[in-house]
Amino acid sequence: xxxxxxxxxxxxxxxxxxxxxxxxxxxxxxxxxxxxxxxxxxxxxxxxxxxxxxxxxxxxxxxxxxxxxxxxxxxxxxxxxxxxxxxxxxxxxxxxxxxxxxxxxxxx
Length: 108
Description:
Elements: H1 12-28, H2 34-38, H3 43-58, H4 63-71, H5 74-81, H6 87-99, H7 101-107
Helix pairs in contact: 3-4, 4-7
């Protein structure tokens, strides 16, 4: 795995805000808001991009390309939000996507 992409601090304030948003949305309807919640304002994606931006750009990623890759990791973002996977496991999954066939296809 790319050692340049370091594991960085879990954004607990953001996680708590996203959890509160999900609960608030679910009060209003019976719709499953999980996916919408982890994409709210692209805050989670932005946080990851800000921490890995230089290394991602060196690998051919732009912000739009990174968002495209993150779209395929929405399920892991939801698992992280529900405390089903750790922050480290979530970031390692993203790193694997970056280095694997998906990341290569996106940056070609």
